[in-house]
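quick one, two chains, predict together pls
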Amino acid sequence: MRATVDGNEATASVAYRLNELCCIFPITPSSPMAELADEWSAKGRSNVFGSVPSVVEMQSEGGAAGALHGALQGGALSTTFTASQGLLLMVPNMYKIAGELTPATIHVAARALAAQALSIFGDHQDVMAVRATGFAMLASASVQEAHDMAAVAQAATMAARVPFVHFFDGFRTSHELNTIELLSDDDLRALVPAELVLAHRRRAMSPEHPFIRGTSQNPDVYFQARETVNPYYERVPALVEEAMARLAERTGRRYHVVGYEGHPEAERVVVAMGSGAETLRETVRYLTAAGERVGMVTVRLYRPFPGAALLAALPPTVRRVAVLDRTKEPGSFGEPLFLDVLGALAEAYTRGEREVMPLVTGGRYGLSSKEFTPGMAAGVFAELGRPEPRRRFTVGITDDVSGTSIDYDAALDIEAPGTLRALFFGLGSDGTVGANKNTIKILGDEGLYAQGYFVYDSKKSGGYTISHLRFGPEPIRAPYLVGQAGFVGCHHFGLLGREEVLARAAPGATLLLNCEYPPEKVWDALARPVQEKILEKEIQLYVVDASRIAREVGLGNRVNTVLQACFFAISGVLEEGRAMEKVKEAVKKTYGRRGERVVAANLAAVDWALEGLARAEVPEKPTSHIELAPLVPVGAPEFVEKVTAVMMAGRGDEIPVSALPSDGTWPVGTAAYEKRNISDLVAEWDPELCIQCGNCSFVCPHSVIRSKYYESSELEGAPAGFRSAPLNARGLPRSSYTLQVYLEDCTGCGLCVEACPVSSPADRGRKAVNLSWREPLLPTERENITFFESLPVAERPRVDFGTVRGAQFLEPLFEFSGACAGCGETPYVKLVSQLFGDRAVIANATGCSSIYGGNLPTTPWTANSDGRGPAWSNSLFEDNAEFGLGLRLAADQHSELARQRLLELKDPLGGELVEAILEAPQRSESELVAQRERLGELRWRLRGLDGGPGAADLDSVLDHLLRRSVWIIGGDGWAYDIGSGGLDHVLASGRDVNVLVLDTEVYSNTGGQASKATPLGAVAKFASAGKTVEKKDLALQAIAYGNVYVARVAMGADPEQTLRAFREAEAYDGPSLIIAYSHCIAHGIEKDGVILRNGLDQQYRAVASGYWPLLRYDPVLRSAGDNPFLLDSPRPRIKVADYAGRELRYSVLSRTDPAEAERLAALAQEAVDRHWATYEEMATRPAGRYAADARKER
Amino acid sequence: MADLSTNYMGLFLRNPLVASASPLSHTVDGVRRLADAGVGAVVMHSLFEEEVFAEAERQAELAEAGSESFAESLSYFTDVPGVEAGGRRYLSVLERAAPVVDVPVIASLNGTTPKGWTRYAHQMESAGASAIELNVYSSPPGADTSGREVEERHVEVLALVKSAVSVPVAVKLSPYYSSVGEVALRLAEAGADALVLFNRFLHSDIDPEALEVVAGLGLSSPSEGRLARTWVALLRQRLDIGLAASTGVESGDDVAKYLLAGADVVMTASALLRHGLGHAEILLDGLRDWMGRKGFASVSRLRGLLSVPPGPDQAGEERAGYVAALRAANANLVGPW
């Protein structure tokens, strides 16, 4: 059976059907495999052995590997899916599983490792890091292969008893849609005979026939015992080959452990693994057709390394071999595949088994999904043809530092002329990707082969998408982006400014542009560089006002159906009448589940699209005077212009090695240079109505609402449109107040409007901050922002930190992040930056906050005008608490060193100053400012000394004499699951760290998987029938230690309590834990059609229902003899259902399983009642009933 | 002791007081409490096909938000059910409630598509509904829709549902037809097992301050019962199918009046919402007292005593905001999720 699926589905389809258990943990890009398995399991789909596999989500990949090991020892056929750091966390268990000769297959969507930076994209660094574990390794080069090799791996592991890692390239293969032939259940049964399953079960642990496994061995036998496995490994290549042969018998698809393709008497051969091999093979076909004596070797089985098969595959004529590794091992003699090939050849030659020793070179390519194109492949052959090919090289980048990179012809196009290549530029929210997936299905059903690959923006809100589609009569083997598109759909006029839109258009291509301009006017609206490109490439231009049509038929901003219809109408991929019939069929199928209105609207969209579509005449010469606006403002720092701006333009591939930092250190504050203008509606301030409460700026997730107060005289010279109002605070006469909206950074989420407490008496719907159209405001507001920035920032000691009203004047040092519009996490993060940013170091767990906090090209953490600001770093997902503790320990160590040196240098530096520094209390802002001044003076005096070791030492750690604020920030996936052990340990350390848990109650960044923070009754991935365990009470756990400051907050319910908790936590000299309710897109909430707009309302309801009681536990009170437990929210006033029922994560269950929804809802209410009773009782206990802080006087 | 039992479209009821469609029957517990309160039958709240569509659309939109936009999180939800899951909650409540109460549970349906009418009616029957009450009000008839067409629709819907189920089918009528009597006769001829007089619409209102249309939910008052009573009295002798009277039941006397006019059963939601479920017993006690005072030994003796031979008509139009108003009225009942 033929189907169009992606590599993850192709793999999961086999893995699921051949296993009984899946123990998993979500990690990009492998998560969809686990999610599919879970979905199938939930639907009761059975495996080929007639049972329904179970899917178990663990707390980490380490946990998944442990469970996998146990499940295998228990006799179940078990698997897991993972990638990158996840695979690394499995390493200890992998040695065990292999050491015990346990058949199992781990399916890996191979991904880069976090080194100088994290990357979610594909390469072989992760799988290469487990090549010593004893797992066999089988590589797939395409979606079809991922499907087939998943089966071959399982067949071979069962027969060989050696466990397998089956891997394929993350994203390139895992996320590429391609038309493949599916293996039937019978095929799978034929590959994995029942006898092998029974044999596996017989080896399981059982008290009926006990044995002991997992002994501790000593010098006498360990070594010999380790050598016992050799015969098992020796058999593997043959067993894999045999499984491949059986697969070929049933399907006609013939694979070998090592494959060769090319000229039978090739002189130059390139060896590779993974999707790069597919590109190489097509390139070799092209080159041999042109008469070149070249060939290529695909290594499918990598461990145990099939040396004999490799040697057999290489024609004896070969004189030069390049081995390509999609990995990097700094400091090694060469990358691993290169070393293996070189070793095999050298051994064969030195033993006289091979007449000629070819020259072997090693190259790196494709790290982090860097493109590997036919041009690059041909470049490698060309390099081999040079008189002296480089020993080691890179391909696909410009390495102007070490000179490793080879040249290649970027324009080489070897694709079959019958292939239709199309590119679509859309926005995340407009349905473009969905429509393209639909198109692929339609054309797949029409018997065409199809391929789809989708590229996404680095921002979570307002990002673009690029769809790369190919269709043709033959299977499509082109695992690289479309470079020469015959059809380009630009689904938003604004995207036309992106150079790549037309850069990838083939000569004579068709451009379909969604714009408001009629065909006769569109030319004049185009920028000159765009016109020039259109003329240069002789592009045929079509226009349609898809946005208007979508709006008018009732589809809002979803322009996908309109543009899909237009694509079919002009691409000619199908005859038009039939195409429209198929599109309409697809509409009914896709939208039928949503009811008649949606179907009717989409059908109308198809008809209207064809009416609205028109060809635009293109004159012979460019006529436009419009130039593309520069991406970053003139005068931006050099690095921003040379690196950041190039990345923003989508041309980051062109950046040479020399331009990039070598240790992962990047400048802060770059988000401010990227004016994204993603929302047509933006916040606008009404000075007349405003009561200057600061609520709007407090909750703004994107830090676009800023407040300043200043002497009214400063207004002299203000632009005419600059808005201000008399400051309504006492004690500051002749002062003015301005609330400035950075409208180009505003996402239009509307949280500010929701938070605004005033409404106009004349118009109740109008507030002191409202959403208005951005475009007309732009010119004035740009001037206003410039002027606003020239106004003085409030002096921190003069700001009232204790109130939301006061906090609005604190400069945010976290701004314009790419988080979702209306994000519930970022207001808390911003608050940390406002309150403590100029002396904070931040450890940030991997997750949403590390992505909106650190995903390039532009990042939101920034510095104040003194150049001070949060120093931020992301280590890993699992180790964040420990990483943060390390920062604290270093700070404490150096603070102690500084104090010691200070005492030693007391006399020359001045006793009074030294005393003052050492005894400074440093709690209030004025005390901190005073200390800063003293340290300035100290530094000055210190440099006046002649030096000496003590002085230099002191100088280097002097900054630590200012109380440093260490923050450990992460989501619930980290705090409740993968980092739980570390967090627990750090909280128990007694050290002065501040932990902020941004609790969205689900793994948000990887797309909504359940965590131990997911509440009872809520639906999430891996809890599709509703979670049946209560959320872990992290607060009570921490309170049990006695010396941990704990707060549970919800900004939308009580911002003042939030503010108080943050300040107390930071001031507390010991570990602090703040658990912050963070509404999230994964909750499924909206108001008036705007996603997340009711986030604050829901926070309020969560608290009002008693689900999220606000509390603080302050050990300082306990030490003073008072009850340290403070319940800050009033008794529940609404039912839990009135909170939860408004969120899709809960309400969806009452449609899938109403009775279960009712049962869980009742239990959830009971749980809340019970917890509330506990908390209320705790709030009345005497101090003595809480654990004392046993640390010595601090 | 007076015999309060009655027969309503072939169903044996222990007394003629029926809880009509209201938020009180949103849960199994709600239905049980209604039955425990002593009523003779429970009509569940209406299943609105329009709401099924709207909910499917809304949930799909929520589930899709943020999807296909960012490489790590290409979706946030899987498997959000479509319209096919619509009504599942309703049917689940019905399925669980019907067996645990000792009175008939009548399902109420408001469809919009032919498929919806038949599918849901059939599912309601399978879920244990003793009868089905059709709440025939779909999209607001446009200005160019004739009264005849509207009436035809009623007949068509009735025929469709009758062909799909074997339990009795009642039609809830509005008082706003050119000729209520004629419509009633046509429906009886088309196979209706009973007619319910009348449907009560939730008229929206306008807030002049906010310049907005606001949802309205008014509970009925006894004075409104006159129109229904008139029609029950007028139709009783022309029809040999069930007649249910609804609207404006506050006291035992109101029940008695309807029975005298010729109703087989008397329905109330407003009184129960207003005074609590205990009011059902007060109504029944009132009826018993009255029967005792007047010497009626059984309901069958007094039914239709004051019914009258053939009669007049009424006119009407409107409907905008009905579903919206109902939904708003139920907004406080977000759960069970």
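The two ends of chain A are 72 Å apart (CA to CA).
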